[in-house]
Amino acid sequence: MYRWNFDVVWQYWDLFMWGLWLTVVYTFGSILFGIVIGLLTCGARLSNWKVLSVIARTYQEIFRCSPLLVQLLWFYYAFPLLVGITIDNRVAAMLTLSLYVGAFYAEIFRGGILSIDKGQREAAAAIGMSTAQATRRIIMPQAVKRMLPSFINQSVIQFKNTSLVSVISVADLAYMAAVVNGQTYRPLESYTVMAALYIIVLFPLTQAADWFERRLRVSD
Predict the structure, then answer these.
(1) Contact 161, 179 (CB under 8 A)
(2) In angstroms, rounded to a whole number, what is the distance separating the alpha carbons of residues 40 and 43?
(3) Most exposed among 38, 45, 117, 192, judged by the fewest C-beta atoms under 10 Å?
């Protein structure tokens, strides 16, 4: 019978903490970049310019219909060959994570905006509001409220997605767990600690997301 021994793994606690810190950095960094990308893509999708809309939708479909793992490998190993420039693994990780989550955010933003009844835009125009004023004062406040639950859930998923950057040697939590396992030969303990840290961080976030969604339903 296997005998658990966390004492050996505990000696590498600083590696786990550093990996967790980098996981948080990549999560929030990619979320911030993803919001910008998502807003720009959403604007392009809703634009009257057909070319912009087609380009934005093509980008979305590529990143939503291919696995994140494949994207990470492509941007780190294949993209440098295409452009003739060496890309640091950390840059490749942040770029890929941001583009990936940005494609999903764009659809969340677009869906929230389109969910608002067209009659409200017409009513705003009838009282003399410009399109920008109607969007800022009437459409967006309602749309943001509808977007938030999906946005929060996608952001929680993004935290878990960062574990894949370990395949290109970014020293996140998953990578550090593998390092500790290589040093101690205690895979059960190493990966159990990794799983526990993910749960400790994510469980409060998922509960907060559920609570927030319930509050929004009640307020409606």
Answers:
(1) no
(2) 5
(3) 117
